[in-house]
Amino acid sequence: MNPDDWMHMLFLSFILKRSRLIGCGQLMKNVFCYYRKSINFGNSWTPVERIIYQDKMLFDYCSSNNINVLKRFSDLGYLGAPFQRPELLQIRKIIEKPNNRADLLLFYSIAGLRTEMKSNAELLLEVVEVLGDVHFFREGLKLDYMRFEMYLKGAINIDLPGYEETTAPMLGKREEA
Length: 177
Description:
It is built from five helices and five strands; from the N terminus they run αβαβαβαββα. By secondary structure, the protein is of the alpha/beta class.
């Protein structure tokens, strides 16, 4: 084997090992988990049982996917009245320091955002804009900032980059009321 072939084989071996590491999730991601007591698993479940169940499911998911949970947050102990959630405010404060950042925010389900979380839409968007992504375990759904904003606000209420609203020309047809 000549030296060029040997170097080529060594290089291919390195690339193959690196791609396996990436493909198998060996490059560890860091996440913040956020649990919602409002997610319903059955009428007899207490809010504490709901949080514990979500924690177990997300812990198992993170363990099997080589994901490091930096910190866990929940809305346990807070009533559903619309106000900025202290746990979301804490996340925002943590991510102000670049060395404390997670790669994404992980929820058990998107269903937890349907109710009073709408009053926290701007705060959630601030967090996701810094982190980059939000992931919903149960639905297997990962959204970047722009898609998450579209979900929270609706497509009609956001500015899409490079998109200007125009009116289509009438093609010789008369509009009827």
